[in-house]
Design brief:
Layout lengths: L4 H27 L7 E4 L15 E6 L2 E9 L2 E3 L2 E4 L3 E9 L4 E5 L4 E5 L3 E9 L3 E6 L12 E6 L1
The structure holds copper (II) ion (CU).
Copper (II) ion binds next to loops.
Length: 155
């Protein structure tokens, strides 16, 4: 089979780039202990109800317009069902799942995390405008997936 010189150059460049990116990923995973950035710690999914702070999910004020929100995702709901915060608040969400893989997304805000049983995911956002933000599960998790929603009310 004949391969033109220019084709060979592009194939070589493509394979070299792929090898380079895989080497960067492997280095980050092995040397830096990289895990997907939303997963910050492990938790026993069977003991969520007795593991602080997830034993009392909800909002905690940590400073002036700074909050931490602890969520438990479970078929087919988020706990808490609703958050109310003032405009301009920065919220760091901590989410874990009690059963299966869920999603945690607030459309048009950049808040988007995968929620895996056994892990705590985290994502932060500053709510600069007032409104009722819909918080949804964006990973198919079963027959009632479309019902799985919560609300962030920014006043
Ligand atoms: Cu779902």
């Amino acid at each position: 089979m004949h391969i033109y010189k220019l084709e060979r150059i592009w194939i070589t460049a493509g394979v070299a780039m792929l090898a380079f990116f895989l080497a960067v990923l492997a280095t980050a995973a092995i040397v830096d202990g990289y895990v997907p950035n939303s997963r910050i710690q492990t938790i026993d999914p069977a003991k969520i109800s007795e593991t602080p702070p997830f034993d009392h999910p909800g909002l905690r004020k940590t400073g002036d317009k700074a909050y931490e929100a602890y969520y438990v995702a479970q078929i087919f709901q988020f706990t808490p069902r609703k958050l109310t915060i003032p405009v301009g608040s920065r919220v760091t969400f901590y989410i874990t799942s009690a059963d299966v893989e869920h999603g945690f997304s607030i459309p048009e805000t950049g808040v988007n995390a995968m929620v895996t049983p056994g892990w705590v995911s985290s994502v932060s956002h500053t709510f600069k405008s007032a409104g009722k933000y819909l918080l949804i599960c964006n990973e198919y998790c079963g027959g009632g997936h479309q019902l799985m929603a919560s609300e962030v009310d920014v006043q």
